[in-house]
Specification:
single chain; 2 domains; 403 residues; mainly alpha; globular
């Protein structure tokens, strides 16, 4: 049929889609070729996320085993590499139970609602030149909008399960997500101000100096806030085994539980991909026109390793410490970073509103000083607020101070 995608099409800049469309268009009608190319892209995207989640689950379990001076998965395959496949088979054959009093429709929708944001976020992340499924000019806004689905899905899981422990876990999860969403959004405003665009491709192009250096405080706030939103240790109060068993997904089993776990592990890789795009120059690197995907995957691996390292190192916070960390520590840091960045951009940009490499290095020097000062000052302040109370003694009980 000799179908060729026109430059006015929204997917023209997506090289992979264009190659599939032009190839299939030689044997199929153009309208059908468009549908086949779209389905192929979605198949690659969904399977890539699921395979990445399975691979990361094995890598993280091996890493945490080494951190904790034990072996980790070692029975299935070389070094336990087939353990994710064994877990998947086990969950597929387990009975899929639904509580008697549950809202069956909402209960069934939850696993899909948990996985959907992970897949949708990857649709706009370019892992190499011209490889994003959609090059949106509001990519940052799109990511923030999509990630908000997670809080709804968590609340749906707790509400539909007809289980008080699940509802407690869901309430904690939603409280954490709402609390940490505010500083996360404000930290991204600094990135948008420096780049002058919300397009992820434009943000990568603007990073002649990685924004990790230009916006160190924003990176810290975004990393910490993202860890909390992903329910990663030490912020995983929604799944505090010592208090509320497994939290909001305690009633899920079989395939539904497998999808929820895939969403949690896949979200780590997706969030790492977003951070690589926003702060680590994306796929940029030596020979990036040919090895951009390799640089991108390597940077994701480094951030995923840091996520696992933190999980294996720090103990879980209390709920009061968790919320105080968001409102009394991360939020002031994000506000200070936003004001400092706005002033720097105002005074350093040229007549066309652009910042050159020299300007970015000047901003990096200023912002590193601001970041160190703020972390020391607010760290000392928050430490006094969340320090656990001293042990209760007989003297305090007799005077009524313990009450």
């Amino acid at each position: 049929m000799n179908c060729v995608l026109g430059p006015d099409n929204i997917l023209y800049d997506t090289l992979l889609f264009r190659v599939i469309y032009d190839g299939v268009g030689n044997v199929l009608p153009c309208w059908l070729s468009y549908a086949v190319a779209g389905l192929a892209m979605m198949l690659i995207l969904v399977n890539g996320v699921l395979l990445g989640a399975g691979l990361f689950s094995w890598v993280e379990r091996r890493l945490i085993g080494r951190f904790h001076n034990r072996i980790g998965p070692n029975r299935w395959g070389p070094m336990g590499s087939l353990q994710p496949l064994a877990d998947l088979v086990k969950l597929l054959v387990k009975e899929d139970l639904t509580p008697k009093g549950a809202d069956r429709i909402v209960f069934t929708i939850v696993p899909v609602a948990m996985l959907a944001p992970v897949v949708l976020m990857m649709a706009v992340v370019p892992f190499a030149k011209d490889t994003a499924l959609a090059n949106l000019n509001v990519g940052v806004l799109y990511i923030l909008a999509v990630t908000s689905i997670t809080s709804i899905a968590i609340f749906m899981a707790g509400w539909a399960s007809d289980n008080r422990y699940a509802m407690f876990g869901a309430s904690r999860g939603v409280a954490v997500l709402i609390s940490y969403e505010v500083p996360v959004v404000m930290s991204l405003l600094g990135v948008v101000l420096v780049a002058g665009s919300m397009s992820l491709n434009d943000i990568i192009s603007a990073q002649t100096v990685p924004f990790l250096l230009v916006q160190p405080l924003a990176f810290f706030v975004f990393f910490a806030g993202t860890s909390a939103e992903l329910n990663r240790t030490p912020f995983d109060l929604a799944e505090a085994e010592s208090e509320i068993i497994a939290g909001y997904h305690i009633e899920y089993s079989g395939v539904k539980f497998a999808l929820i776990q895939a969403a949690e592990f896949g979200a780590v890789l997706t969030s790492s991909a977003v951070m690589v795009t926003l702060f680590l120059s994306g796929w940029s690197g030596p020979f990036s026109n040919y090895l951009g995907w390799a640089w991108f995957l390597m940077k994701i691996g480094v951030l995923a390793f840091i996520f696992s390292w933190i999980r294996a190192t720090f103990p879980r916070l209390r709920i009061d410490q968790l919320l105080a960390f968001a409102w009394k520590f991360l939020l002031p840091l994000s506000i200070i970073n936003l004001f400092a960045t706005a002033l720097e951009v105002f005074f350093l940009r040229d007549g066309a509103g652009n910042l050159d490499t020299t300007d970015l290095w000047i901003m990096a020097g200023i912002n590193f000083g601001v970041a160190i000062t703020c972390l020391l000052v607010f760290g000392t302040m928050i430490k006094e607020k969340v320090r656990p109370a001293g042990p209760v003694t007989g003297a305090t009980l007799s005077t009524g101070e313990a009450a």
